[in-house]
Each structure stands twice: as structure tokens, then as C-alpha cells.
Amino acid sequence: MNADVIVIGSGISGLTTAALLAKAGRKVVVLERHGRPGGAIKRFTRQGIPFDIGFHYTGCLGDGEILRALWKYLDVLPRISLLPFPSDGCDCLHMKESGKIVRAFFDRDLLQCELERVFPDELPGIKGYLQRVEEICSTVPFYNTDLPLTPFLRGFSRPDGGLATFLSSLTDDEDLQSALASPSFLYGVPPEAASLAVHAMVAYSYFSGAYSIDGGGQAIVDAFLSVLNTTGAQVLCGRDVRSIIVKNGHVTGVDTGEEEIRASDVVFTGHPSGVLNMVPDEIFRPAYRHRLRDLKNTGSMFVVFGAVEYSEKVRELTWVNRYSVPGGLNIMDVNREHPEESTLLLTAPGLRDKDFALSEATSGVILMRAADWNEAAPFDQGRGPRRSPAYREWKDEAAAKLIEKAEQLWDDIGKIRLLAAGTPLTFRDELAAPMGAVYGPQHSLDQHNPGARTRLPGLWLSGQGTLMTGVMGSSLAGLVTAGEMNDLEFLWQEVKKCL
Ligand SMILES: Cc1cc2nc3c(=O)[nH]c(=O)nc-3n(C[C@H](O)[C@H](O)[C@H](O)COP(=O)(O)OP(=O)(O)OC[C@H]3O[C@@H](n4cnc5c(N)ncnc54)[C@H](O)[C@@H]3O)c2cc1C
């Protein structure tokens, strides 16, 4: 088989890169090792209840915002139905130690009012935070779309100071520090290691609204598949790319172990360190190999997919995500002895589906907590059904503790019945992410993430490990990679016509 471009990985970044290149006239083949496309954002069902894994909500889908423009440009938008959170929708932060509740609204002014209401003695710190986030984002082309993209990308790794230092300079109030640091949960870097610039970019994306999609992440995947189908691009699943073929210093295709597929360009969208096993050692200089191999990773998670009886209180979860967070800057810390005491999120994205009423006797809820690789590492033998009984015992026990904790914290939603659980081993195997790093490599203060270009002509990187994490970050990573492969500023101008 021949193609112009092979995209390895069918997550949101692979689908975006593929759709952009196909629109530009290239013959594209997407290869996915799993049996279904979609990477982290695909859905699964248990007992008829749909569960999202890696997509609960995103920002930047409002009028004039960049993700909306990109999806319009690609013709994805008419194929999906956006579900904007209403104005009283929020992340509801329950402060573990003080019992305070902060409603982190997805609207900059409402957020400021709420913070001022809960922390009336902290007005300068609150204003200082919001202003700095806005200042930083005014220099980011994805938010200030009048700016060209290239100079920003070339200076992207420039740190703008650390998040922890910044927050500590604004306030000593540990609950306020925690509330302001809470977006860290969405990119997986502890505030001590987090760059203020990256934090600002994630936090700011929710200042003008949060959005879900009818049908969850699967609806996004299906819309991309439909677009790719119209362009003649192919998405082939069950194809685990083992090696990238290099001849005379240039990529010529890939080998899946069962077949060779030829192409002059290959885009790898998995964890960037994954390419090291796919090319001969001498292809990259030792410094680049070390850089990819030693990338520091985000933490992992333990996730419970459960069922609760539908009630008025459960209905409130449709637009309110409940968090339990420790005070101070410990939001990403895993309590080693009692991991269920770490930051906890209760959410129910399936409730937002327009057809939810069809199955409303029971609804799906998702419980997520930060997890340490070492919790699961002792059970790292076999895969899937071949995992040991000890692993299943540990997983069930950890899930039961998490459920017990959630039922204590939020006793108004009733009993949670365990249907499935995801552990660091699950995420390691599902996402091909070292140590189950849910957001791939850290985008942090002292880490220089790789860009789209590699030193091997014809080999490109994309995905959450390059530009940014999240559905928005990974989509924009796809835009940057496709742009770098053709003409970045031209593509940027074309996408902006859809703003
Ligand atoms: C539990 C969880 C909750 C999240 N919640 C949100 C949220 O609410 N909002 C949000 O914006 N983001 C969220 N995210 C983050 C978001 O899902 C990811 O940042 C994004 O989906 C990453 O997309 P990607 O394409 O870069 O990577 P992936 O989706 O991981 O795709 C990479 C693909 O490459 C494939 N692959 C790797 N190696 C090979 C190979 N050798 N051959 C073939 N295929 C290969 C993998 O199988 C995978 O399908 C969440 C993530 C997790 C895990």
C-alpha cells in the first residue's frame, strides 16, 4: 500500500493532522494499534451506559474561538452538536480541610465575583491572578488571533515563571491558592513544576465558556471519520506500527510487522519517546534521544466508571463537576497511604447527551483521582484478561475505597455501583503512555517539549506531548504539525477565516 502521509495514532491529534493534510490534497492513511479509533477520547459502554474516558469538557468552542474555527474549517462542526454549559455550570470545588465551597464558573466575571464572595479579604490577589492570566494569553495567537503563529511557536518553550511562586506571591490563603491552582488537574502538572504560561493558557480557555458534545468524545471521533471518508483518507485499526523505515536518510514508510506501507512522510502522535524504538539508534543524535527518553511525565489516574440511580441531585451533575481538593498547592499530590484522600473529581458527562432521557433510570458517573504509577506497578504482568488475580483484587479494593470516599463526601447522590475501573496500567496500555501518564509528557517549567519537526527528514511529531495537552491542545498540535509540513502561516490564515 502507498500513501503520501502515514499518521500513526487515531487520537484527536492524529485525526486533526490527517484531516488537515487530506484537505490539502495529500493521500493520507491513519494507523491505529487498537481495534477502535479515537485514542483517549473514544467512548465505551457498560450495561448500556456510555462512558467517556478522556473527554468531559473543553473551552474555546464559542463564537470567534480557535477550536470552533478549526472544526468549522475541517467541516467537523456541522457534524457534531455543541452543548455549552449554562451560566450556572461550574467546577464546584469542595475544600477538604476548611469545608469551603468555591464555584469555579466558566465565565471570567462570574468567577471573579465568586472568588471575591468566598475570599473577601483577598481582592488584590484575585485581581492579580486574573489580570496576569489575561496578559499572558493576550500574547498567545490561539487567543489573540491577530498574532502570527510562527514567532510564538519558536519562543514557546520560554518559561514565564512558575505557578507555585506566582500564587504564593499573591496570597497566603491556602483555599484561594488551591482554587486558583485547580486547573492544574486538567494538564496534570503539580503547581511547583507548572509554568505560569501553560497554566494561564489552560485556565483562560474556560474564561469564556465550557462545552460538551452531544455523544461525548465518540461524537468527535465519528465526525472526523466522516470527514476523512469524504476526502478518501483511510483509517486502519489493529495496526501496531513497529518500525519506521528509513532509506538514504529519509523516511520511506512504516512496518506493522504484517505489512509495509510506503509514504514519504510519517507523523507519530503517541508519546514522543515512542519513536525511539521505531527508528535505528544512529538516526538521532544522542542529545535528542536523551531528550525524548528523559521527558518528565504527567501523573496517572485511577478512574471508577459507576452507575447511580437517577434523581434530582444526580441531575445537578449534568452541568456541575464536583471536586474535593486539598488546600494549598497540593492539588496533584497522591496521598501514598490513602490515595482516595487525594484530589477527587465526580462528573457525569453522559447526562449531557440529548438522548439521555431514553435510559434515565440509571445514570453513569465517573470518579477520578490522581494516582501514582507505583500503586499499580507490582501488578505489571500480562495484559487485559491475562492480568493476575492479585491485580484485580487490588483494583476492586482501590475502587471500593474511592467509591466509599465519594459517597461520604457527596451523600446526596446515593450508592455508586462499580461497573469498570481504569488504573495506571490501563492508561499505560490504552494510551501507550509510559507509567500511565494520562496527559503524556509534562508541559512544565523546566521541560522543553519536542516540536513538530524532527531531525529525520519525513518524520514529524504531533499530539499532546508536543504543543499542549487536552482536546484543544492536541487539536492545535495537529494544526501546527500539518502547517509545518506545508505552509504554517498560510494554514493559520485559512483557519482564521472561519473565526
Ligand atoms: C481520564 C482522562 C480525562 C481527560 N479529560 C479531558 C477533558 O475533560 N477535556 C480535555 O480537553 N482533555 C481531557 N483529557 C486529555 C485528552 O483526552 C488528551 O489530551 C487528548 O485526547 C490526547 O490526544 P492525542 O491524540 O494527543 O493522544 P491519544 O488520544 O493518546 O492518541 C494517541 C494514539 O496513538 C496510538 N498509538 C501509539 N503508538 C502507536 C503505534 N506504534 N502504532 C499505532 N498506533 C499507536 C494510541 O493507541 C492512541 O490511540 C483527559 C485525559 C484522560 C486520560
Provide the fold topology.
Blueprint: E1 5-8, H1 12-23, E2 28-31, E3 43-46, E4 49-52, H2 66-73, E5 82-84, E6 90-95, E7 101-105, H3 108-118, H4 123-137, H5 150-154, H6 163-170, H7 174-181, H8 196-204, E8 211-213, H9 216-231, E9 234-236, E10 243-247, E11 250-255, E12 260-262, E13 265-268, H10 286-293, E14 300-309, H11 312-316, E15 320-325, E16 344-347, E17 362-371, H12 373-376, H13 389-409, E18 417-422, H14 424-431, E19 459-461, H15 470-485, H16 488-496
Parallel strand pairs: 1-2, 1-13, 2-9, 6-15, 13-19
Antiparallel strand pairs: 3-4, 5-8, 6-7, 10-11, 11-12, 14-17, 14-18, 15-16, 16-17
Helix pairs in contact: 1-9, 1-15, 3-4, 4-8, 15-16
Flavin-adenine dinucleotide binds at residues 8-14, 31-34, 39-41, 53-58, 240-241, 269-270, 274, 301, 303, 431-432, 438-439, 463-464, 469-472, 474.
